[in-house]
Each structure stands twice: as structure tokens, then as C-alpha cells.
Amino acid sequence: xxxxxxxxxxxxxxxxxxxxxxxxxxxxxxxxxxxxxxxxxxxxxxxxxxxxxxxxxxxxxxxxxxxxxxxxxxxxxxxxxxxxxxxxxxxxxxxxxxxxxxxxxxxxxxxxxxxxxxxxxxxxxxxxxxxxxxxxxxxxxxxxxxxxxxxx
Length: 152
What we know:
Number of helices: 6
Order of helices and strands: HHHHHH
Distance between the termini: 19 Å
Signal peptide: 1-22
Number of strands: 0
Keywords: Signal
């Protein structure tokens, strides 16, 4: 459960990082502050040659889910049906998380919404697991929680 929460928060941070870097990419600062040798200004000629600005690289939800599934599939010994069902739950959850992150609300409200989403996602995943897998899933989440606690 905690591993999944950690991955949700991590993916939210990645989405935020893409937005932040997009603001400073080719938006009038010349690929950052002073990278073209003339301080804060930008080289207008080089910007005039760019017909279309580069879009920020967004990691597709499916790529994130496949990385999560690579980790949990062997640990939980998932069968093919469980793998598909859980992957679909994760895709739905990450898309909902993206919507939450883009909302015009306080950071605290967003964190509460993400926490609630994480709990709902965990409940949905647990529905697809047998008794042994549920125990392993809970342990996996607890291990993730302790690893994050040690980092802070």
C-alpha cells in the first residue's frame, strides 16, 4: 500500500517537474538563464528560428504502470488476469492523480485527495488478490513506508 502511495507521489512529482522545466525551456529565457553567453537576455535570432516550441516530455501513464507491474508481479506472483486488472486500476488511478495535480486548489487539499485516491486504489487492488497475496502486498507497502521514513 505504501509502495503504491510512494509511486503515486513520485509520479506526481515527475509530472510537476515536467511542468516546471517547460516554463523555462524556450520561453523567452534562451534555454535557461544566461546559457547563451549574454546574461539573462536571450538570443532573439535563435528563437526566431524556432517555429514551434518543444513540448515538455510527458511520461505516459502506461509506461509508469508497466514499471510498477514489473516490480509487483513477481513479488505477488500475479496471474495474467490479476496483472491486467491491477494494471487497469493503476492506469485509472494515475490518470485521476494527474487531474488532481492540475486542479486549482491548495497543496494540502491536493495531498488529501491523493491520499484518498491511494486508499481507494489499494482497496481495489486488494479485491483482486488472494489471501497470501494480500499479506505480501501489505508487507511490501510497509517496507516501502519504512524505506521512505529512513530517507527523511
